Amino acid sequence: MVKEIWWMFFNVLIPLAPVPAVMLFEWVTIDGTPMKNALSFVKDGQLFFYCTTISSGALGDLIKASSDDRARGTITAVAGTDFWSAASLIWVMAFLAVIIASVICFGFCIKHNQSKSVREGQFALVGISLTIMTIILVCGLRQQAGLL
After folding, report:
1. pTM to 2 decimals?
2. pLDDT tens track for 28-69
C-alpha cells in the first residue's frame, strides 16, 4: 500500500498540482471573484500531454517487467506470461490507444486554440476524463505487474 501512495504522490499529485493552484491564484488575484469558466485553463491540452507522458512511461514499465522476468528465467511477467502474451498485448493496445487519442486531441488543441468553434468546457472535460482513465489504466498495469 505504501508503494501505491508514493507512486500516486509523485506521478499524479505533483504533476497535476498546477491545476488547483491556477484555480486558487485566479480566484485570489481577480478581486476575489471566481473565474468565469473553472475549466478554461485546462483547455490548452496540458492534460493530453500528461496522458501521453505517463502512458509511454507505463509502456516502458511493461517492457521492463517482461524483460526482467525473462532475464531471471521465469515466464511470470505481466498477466502471468511473457511480453508477447495476449494479456500483455491488450495492455499495449490500450496504452497505444490512449497515446494516439491524447496526441490527436493535443494537436487539435494547438490548431484550434483561439478558435471559437471549440467549446472550452466540453473539451476540458474530455481532457479530465482521459486523464482519470489513464491514471486508472496505469495503476492497473503497475499493480498487475507488481511494480506498485
Report:
1. 0.73
2. 665 655 555 656 667 778 888 889 999 988 888 877 776 655
* Dist CA 141 CA 62 (whole Å): 8
Separation between Cα atoms, residue 68 and residue 133, nearest integer Å: 27
How far is 26 from 29, CA to CA, in rounded Å? 5
Mean pLDDT of 82-91: 70
